[in-house]
Amino acid sequence: MIRPTPLKNGDKVGYVAPAGPIIKDRLESAINALECLGLKVILGKSCTLEHGYFAGEDILRADDINEMFDNKDIKAVYALRGGYGCARLLDKINFTAIKENPKALFGYSDITMLHIAINQRCNLITYHAPMPATELYKGIDKFTLNSLKKMIFANDLKGNLYNPRSKKIKFIVEGKACGKLTGGNLSIICSSLGTDNEIDTNNKILFIEEIAEEPYKIDRMLLQLIQAKKINACSGIILGYFSNCKASKPQQSLTISEIIEELLKPLGKPIITGVACGHSLPSLTLPMGAEVLIDSKNKIIKLV
């Protein structure tokens, strides 16, 4: 996998909105969030538009991505927010141009679809990271900021990834596993199945997080991945935040922990849970496509 060139002070970063429209009052603060790090923000057309639940029509949002990757002056591309819409762009994105102009892509949630497609089609590392119009605009904690800055600026990513001290990593199944990191948002991973951009989990470390889904829906989606042989094919599993994934009728529901015990544990894959990443803060920034070693018993995640 190719790691995009780390950024340096003064580099230009292209903001795009490949999914939902942003709240306009957040735009100035979202720009300041990266410019405070010494970077210069260039806005794509999609950043100020609305088309129903999209930030502009499909072709415009796709053109934004294509132009940012094609522009030699732009050194990285950052999704302002998630929502829904990236899947509608995949047949309009110029992946050949992305492969020829490798640069960092940052974002998460619906951006999972772009991570999967770019990792697999372009052999390029991307970054599962907090977004300017979702978290960064209002300021973030030191842990989250330091993790993001490391992925943006550091020349060498090798070493362990640590949770904040207040959040403990646990293991479900003991063991060690190594592989390229893939995955992201569970519902988006499942929506890739059966398409030209279906997630490839073969001998990879599968990362999963989710937000605001009832436990029975988490059960259904994990079962789909199992029945599609995606979890069977991976070498290990990292579970992040399952934010606000609570049952409306708790007395008639399994918990997320019980679902994991019943569906994932019997597969015998090394599983680490409680990793601080996803739709909550503090949050790690993860390099998707990078080679990762997990040692579940010792609760270690290492970039190798």
Question: Could you walk me through the main structural features you see in this protein, from its secondary elements to its overall organization?
Answer:
The chain is of the alpha/beta class and 304 residues long. It is built from nine helices and 14 strands. The strands form two sheets. Strands 6-14-13-8-9-10-11-7 form an eight-stranded mixed sheet. Helix 3 links the parallel strand 3 and strand 4. It is globular and about 50 Å long. The two termini are 12 Å apart. Belongs to the peptidase S66 family. One of its GO terms (biological process) is proteolysis. One of its GO terms (molecular function) is serine-type peptidase activity. Pfam families: Peptidase_S66, Peptidase_S66C. Keywords: Carboxypeptidase, Hydrolase, Protease, Serine protease.
| Biggest sheet layout | 8 strands, mixed
Strand order of the largest sheet: 6-14-13-8-9-10-11-7
Number of strands: 14
Q: What's the average pLDDT?
A: 97
Number of helical segments with 4 or more residues: 9
Rg (CA only) = 18 Å
Low-confidence stretches: none
Helical proportion? 25-40%
The sequence of SSEs as H and E is: EHEHEHEHEHEEEHEHHEHEEEE
Structural class of the helix and strand makeup?
alpha/beta
Through-space gap between termini: 12 Å
- Which descriptor suits the 3D outline? globular
Strand portion, in percent?
15-25%
